[in-house]
């Protein structure tokens, strides 16, 4: 079912990252009502740039680390919902690529996404009188075609795809629909240099970038098209 972003309220977790920032810019072309960006590191210059793109849209930033306890996430969302009254879309986009940092990779890429999703269900779940909502989770093509030199990262993305597919099947119960967008190799700082698991491949970044790649802007354009197509349970490959 197609979906118009005009006059909608969107929360974007990690909306200032490589793909995230270009996607935020693309979203602003759609005349949202509010774009709320949650990110670990504040970037006033990027926020100012976003605000200048479309003055009709209110852009707000809150500091947020997805690895915080779920109670902290719920508290932050309570503040946002009190301000906006309603939220239409949650985009979960936080991610790191470093198989030396096993626990943090799992915490950021998967546990944090699950916790943020679980927290927003307090406000959206129709069993609690909520209005429902839309969750867009950023996965990766590694979720179904692993980069075997980074099995921890690839494993977290497979988990995201499966978790989101389950959310989609639960939509009749919760009123919350969900889908994944799964970028291919995109030219961002994430892939320029990273560590393989147990250093099995010291040149993993160079070998990865030898494959066909896409600029983050192209990825962002297709990302927003996927949001507008709004197919519950879809596994988009960008």
From TrEMBL:
**The UniProt record lists the keyword S-adenosyl-L-methionine:** no
Write down the PROSITE patterns for this protein, in alphabetical order. Answer: ADH_SHORT
Q: Which GO terms describe its biological process?
A: alcohol metabolic process
Alphabetized Gene3D superfamilies for the sequence: NAD(P)-binding Rossmann-like Domain
Q: Which CDD domains match?
A: ADH_SDR_c_like
Pfam families, per this entry? adh_short (PF00106)
EC annotation? 1.1.1.1
Keyword annotations: NAD, Oxidoreductase
Q: List the catalysed reactions.
A: a secondary alcohol + NAD(+) = a ketone + NADH + H(+); a primary alcohol + NAD(+) = an aldehyde + NADH + H(+)
GO molecular function ontology, one term from the record: alcohol dehydrogenase (NAD+) activity
Quaternary structure annotation from Swiss-Prot or TrEMBL: Homodimer.
PANTHER family attached to this UniProt entry: ALCOHOL DEHYDROGENASE
Instruction: Give the protein family.
Output: Belongs to the short-chain dehydrogenases/reductases (SDR) family.
| Name the UniProt record assigns to this protein | Alcohol dehydrogenase
Q: Which organism is it from?
A: Drosophila melanogaster
């Amino acid at each position: 079912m197609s979906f118009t972003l005009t006059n909608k309220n969107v929360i974007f977790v990690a909306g200032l990252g490589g793909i995230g920032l270009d996607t935020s810019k693309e979203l602003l072309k759609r005349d949202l009502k509010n774009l709320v960006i949650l990110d670990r590191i504040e970037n006033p210059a990027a926020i100012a740039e976003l605000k200048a793109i479309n003055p009709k849209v209110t852009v707000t930033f809150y500091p947020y680390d997805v690895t915080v306890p779920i109670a902290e996430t719920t508290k932050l969302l309570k503040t946002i919902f009190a301000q906006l009254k309603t939220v239409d879309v949650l985009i979960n986009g936080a991610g790191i690529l470093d198989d030396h940092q096993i626990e943090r990779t799992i915490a950021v890429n998967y546990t944090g996404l699950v916790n943020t999703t679980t927290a927003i269900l307090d406000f959206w779940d129709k069993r609690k009188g909520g209005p429902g909502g839309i969750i867009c989770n950023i996965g990766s093509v590694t979720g179904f075609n692993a980069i075997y030199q980074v099995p921890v990262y690839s494993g977290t993305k497979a988990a995201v795809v499966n978790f989101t597919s389950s959310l989609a099947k639960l939509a009749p119960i919760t009123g919350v629909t969900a889908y994944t967008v799964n970028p291919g190799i995109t030219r961002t700082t994430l892939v320029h240099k990273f560590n393989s698991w147990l250093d099995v491949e010291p040149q993993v970044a160079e070998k990865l970038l030898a494959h066909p790649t896409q600029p983050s802007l192209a990825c962002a354009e297709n990302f927003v098209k996927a949001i507008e197509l709004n197919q519950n349970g879809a596994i988009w490959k960008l």
